[in-house]
Structure formats: C-alpha cells, structure tokens
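Subject: sequence -> structure tokens, single chain

Hey, anyone have a minute? Need the predicted structure for the following. Not urgent.
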Amino acid sequence: MDLYDSRAGISAFLFKKCPPEAVDLAFVLCSPSVSSLQPALALYKAGLTRRILISGGGTAVDGSPEWAFYREHALAAGIPESALLLEKDARNTAENAAFGAALIERDLGWDKVRSLAICAKPFHMRRAIMTVRRHVPADTRLIAQPPNDPGDLSADTWWQSAKGRQRVFAELGKIGDYALKGDLGDV
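Reply:
Had a minute. Here:
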C-alpha cells in the first residue's frame, strides 16, 4: 500500500457523505464555527425535513454558546423557531448523541422519528454517525450530511497542511478512544 492508498483509505473512512434525502429530523452537532448547520438548512429549505435539532453547549467563535449561535443563524436563514429543537448542554460528541437522543425521545418520540440526517464537520462524520448510532433505536435510518464549506477540511486535501493532518489523525485517535469507552454503536 502506498501513501496515496493510505490517504484515500483514511478519507473514505472518516469523510462519510450520503446524498440528501427526506428525513424526519436533521441533527446538528455544533462546533465553534457554524458550517455544520448548512446541510440542515438546505434540507429544510428543500422540503426534505421539517425539524432541526441543534446540539451544543460549547463556545462559538463569537463567544456565545454554540446552540445560541447556530439558532441565530437558523432564524436569520428563515427557519421558524417552531422548527427548532435546542439541546444546550453537550460538550462533546458523546454528549451530543446522548443528550440529543434523550431530547428526541422526550419531545418527539422515536415512533415519529425514523430517520436522522447527521450534520457535522466532514472529517468528524464517521465518529458522529457511530456515536449517534449507540443512542438511537437500531432501525432509525442515519444519513451523513456534512457541509461543503471551504473553511472545513476536505477529503481531497486534508493531508496538505500540518493542521489538517493533526485534526484527521486526532480524529482517528478519538474513534479509538470512544470505542474503548463503549461510546460507539455499530454502523
């Protein structure tokens, strides 16, 4: 296996992406920058989802809580407040998945949510999907919907910068850490 094959394999594993399709809920895992919201907005505007769950209690680039930063962007994009579910406490992917799934069960019910679009950073998509899988019913369909934002790492170029290599190899390590703690479901 040469270097190209290794890079391609890592990219194929981490940078998971599915075609857009109709889902019961778009589940957005927040980060400091707002690009992860983009696919959820696109699904809503295309009529492919009627609800968006925003999950994140960290700090956004503007210093506000991530959930509030994403909420403001969603409202500014024309998404009605009634279409938004807000999970305000999660500080990491495991908490996004656990707290988000509990919110879905409490406020909507799994009988009404049979499919989720998981919206997270492109390089983070594999762990996001695997972690959410651990917390949702086995028959819930999960589709990977990363943003296509020039500010995010790309499957085609992540290895071309020290920061890109660091983020991707750290993500691979986090998948191992999550697996050892039992935080991942089967995908």
